[in-house]
Specification:
Chain A is 28% helix and 27% strand. Chain A contains 11 helices and 29 strands. Chain B has one domain. The chains are: A alpha+beta (495), B mainly alpha (208).
Amino acid sequence: MKRKTLYILLLISAFVFGSLPTKAQEPFFSYTYDYWGEPVPAPHAFLPTNRIDGFTLGIDHFDNPRDLFAADDGRLFIADTGNNRIVVLGNDLRSAEILKNFETPDGTQAFYQPEGVFVTKGGDIYIADTGNSRIIHLDNEGKYVRTIGSPKADIIPADFVFSPTKLAVDNAGRIYVVASGVTQGIMMLDAYGIFRGFIGASRVTPGVMDIFWRAVATEAQRERMLLFVPTEFNNITIDDEGFLYVTTDKLSYWDILHAVNARSRDDRVAPVRKLNPTGVDVLRREGFFPPVGDVYFDYMEQSQLVDVSVADYGIYSVLDRRKGRIFTYDPDGNLLFIFGGLGGARLGTFRNPVAIERIGDRILVLDSMRASITIFDITEYGSLLKDAVVLHRTGDYEASTEKWREVLRRNSNSDLAYIGMGMAYMRKDDFSSALEHFRLGAMRERYSRAFQLYRREVIGRNFGIIALLLLVPLVTFVLIRRRNGKLTGKRPQYD
Amino acid sequence: MIEVLNGLKYTSHLIFHPFDGFWDLKHEKRGNLKAAVVIIVLLCITFILRRQMTGFIFNLSDPDELNIVNEILSVILPFALWCVSNWCLTSLMEGEGSFKDIIITSAFALTPLILVNVPLLFISNALTIHEGAFYHFFNSLAVLWAGVLLILGTMVLHQYTLTRTLLTSIFIVVGMGVIIFIGLLFFSMLQQMFAFVYTVYLEISLRM
């Protein structure tokens, strides 16, 4: 009897525990887009490993945090907007330090709704103190240095309310500010905090209809028409070489749809831009589609890019707030991988992601509603892909080819890997293999180049046969005609 | 069989001598309906082959989305619309051609599309992007040639002047649009009618 009960218990436990998954299912699907704009499943490039919030840090919960910044010394800065404070995490991301009040010559002051934070290489901390309409500059230890107030210039209206939200500082100390309500571009302040102008304003190209209406409008109407609104930026990042990456989510559904369908490569409809110091967009858009986030989307469901983060060698990731996805592109604008999703309860999903940062091979995403930071670690597949791109950039083609081969073993849908392999075959002068790989990677330009060389090779190798094949029928034809006594062709005659 | 072959052979004369060619096509009975059907079938085949076998560099169609029915319809439908619209208008505008003549003339006028596109299939497999100009030139040439033949054919068939033909051709194209519109209207009305009858039936059957 006892034995029987034991057996039954064993059987039940076998069913119960046997059916439990041995490994938790990943909370999202990873994918890329192929040449035709179809989403294609791909292995995960990044997987969530941890979540940091006020509780894990042993401080008050975050309240609507808006910005994240990974300083070069390994510290992580969080603009905890709702709590009017800046939280500084140590290298281990466990200990927290809080910046709330600071001593100025005019007495103790506090932040009010700070939405952005930036730390220079030297460790100077710049805080967009949005609610107080100012930028606060603190030194390495958090000691007050100066306040930069509302910029003054002829082109700024007198009633302008300065609400800086995001900022970046270059090596020369110039400050680039994204302020809400500003549609002329990024505000550039010099090292002394004096306004020097707007940069990166999007070109406004009037359409045919605009020109038509302009032509028929009266003088008074024309006056009012001058006010068509260019892009408003929402975030800014600066890379090691001093290029600014800016994002916007103010582009219309139709504009994005058109840019995708036309495979546009110019900067007019571009939710992410890379600006050189003079404010000209230099982002390469050589991928199958321009970097706009999702390529396939429903009406009004286009990606809403809210932040960008740049890794080494110009690989950058953008964050889509609408679907909670992170899109990573190589410096040429090829889509590498997509991961992330909405949700909130499960690790790796978000409710309202607002900022993205990189620390080495980690990606950190700040969720303002969930009031937490999710840490994603790179997978084997992700690092193979990254290494392949980086090795190719640095000119180590042999090693790069090996990596592409490994990528292909894990994802036979990877167009980029086929193209990478094709380029390797090109260097080995194996044109027919190169052709095959470029065809699989849907890369027509390179295919054409490979084909040109392949054709030359084939013709060169088989010149005798080709010449013979062309000559023999010609000679036969001429001979037969001559025998018949006619060189001109006899055609059926219709009167 | 032999008349079909003779008809097809005649195209080589017709496409280079359109004025004489189209005149004889009707009055010397050089063409016939069977040959016209064969030309249209060949044109359908050409379109399918072009979609599938054009060289990778110039082939921008997604192989996943091949639908032979669509390809065939993309030839037959415009052709049928053109013929019907042509007949409708020219009957009103003192045209000389019968509906059969219109079908034969229009079909024979489209032969350059076959004659140019089939060799182009092979050539497209041997060209690079930089030589693409040739490909696109011959592609446009075929369309242009067929278009000119179509207009000249209409002109000779109905014994119109050139200006009248051009005007009629514009009307024919407008007429094609009108036919499509009426067709869609008809189908939508039919659908509504069916829906109405069905609801009445449902209503009655549920109350019985």
